[in-house]
């Protein structure tokens, strides 16, 4: 196994910066959902770290559930037509739902997901994403909580993968060119 540090080109956000940002997001969520019984919906697998840290930074009692989705099509780009690989266990009728995501890239997955969950009778469906690429977003999907807007370059770590690797990095970073070749 090669040294992971050699694969990193540039660290965008350190563990400390991520911790502080998650705390900020949690304060906003706590404030907006005071007195409500919020259901956190994590989107597997990228959202695992955000969910783990955000849910523990929240002060009130929150429940969580998970979905796994996949875009139709052969390409690597999101098509906007989404297939559910693992559905929620929770009935959404009347629920206040907060979708937890690592990144909004094209926004196509989230736009579909937000509409899908809303149609199940949820009272509200909002989105919390740690990262967003404004120059890549192709929809008008509204994220109520965003950690950072970043340039449209490929990033890994803190749940984000390249070919299922680097999810366990505690920072968010770009990869050295040799990784792709
Ligand atoms: C990534 C990321 C978001 C989605 C964003 O997930 O975690 O869920 O893509 O893309 P979009 O805004 O263009 O729709 P991916 O499909 O790589 O699955 P993963 O979370 O299991 O890595
Ligand atoms: Mn994902
Ligand atoms: Mg991925």
Name the helix and strand elements from N-terminus to C-terminus, one letter apiece.
Answer: EHEHEEEHEEEEH
- How many helices? The count is 4
For the largest beta-sheet, the strand count, sense and barrel status come to: 6 strands, mixed
CA radius of gyration: 16 Å
Shape: globular
Strand order in the largest sheet: 4-3-2-5-6-7
Uncertain segments of ≥5 residues (pLDDT<50)?
A: none
Helical amount among residues, as a percent range? 10-25%
Return the average pLDDT rounded to an integer: 94
Instruction: Identify the bound ligands.
Output: 1-O-pyrophosphono-5-O-phosphono-alpha-D-ribofuranose, manganese (II) ion, magnesium ion
Query: Whole-Å distance between the termini?
Result: 17 Å
CATH topology: Rossmann fold
